[in-house]
């Protein structure tokens, strides 16, 4: 079982909490957060597999996100 993460960019307020928690999985561009796939930001709503070694940091990012726009899915 794995976990995928995605961001609803329409809800994002761009405070960067996700980037602080896990810069390997999140980036800010134009004041909006995006999930990273490698070194590329993916469009909002696109779910990306979370590597096991980053899972705790991604969960922290989702929990700390003020507008709660980071979503986790179990696969």
Overview of this protein structure:
This protein is of the alpha+beta class and 75 residues long. The protein has one domain: Alpha-Beta Plaits. It contains two helices and six strands, in the order βαββββαβ. It has helices spanning 17-21, 55-64, and strands at 3-7, 26-29, 32-37, 40-41, 48-49, 70-74.
Which stretches of 5+ consecutive residues score pLDDT under 50? none
| Helical/strand content category | alpha+beta
Helix/strand order, N-terminal first: EHEEEEHE
Which strand-content bin applies to the residues?
Answer: 25-35%
Instruction: Report the major sheet.
Output: 3 strands, antiparallel
Please give the radius of gyration in angstroms: 11 Å
Output mean pLDDT.
96
At CATH level 3, the topology is Alpha-Beta Plaits
How many E-type strands?
6
CATH architecture: 2-Layer Sandwich
CATH C-level class? Alpha Beta
**What is the end-to-end distance?**
6 Å
Q: Helix fraction?
A: 10-25%
Q: How many distinct folded domains? A: 1
Number of helices: 2
Order of strands in the sheet with most strands: 5-1-6
């Amino acid at each position: 079982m794995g976990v995928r993460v995605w961001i609803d960019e329409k809800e994002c307020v761009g405070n960067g909490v996700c980037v602080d928690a896990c810069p390997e999985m999140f980036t800010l561009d134009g004041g909006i957060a995006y999930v990273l796939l490698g070194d590329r930001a993916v469009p909002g709503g696109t779910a990306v597999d979370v590597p096991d070694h980053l899972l705790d940091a991604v969960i922290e990012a989702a929990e700390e996100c003020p507008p709660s726009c980071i979503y986790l899915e179990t696969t």
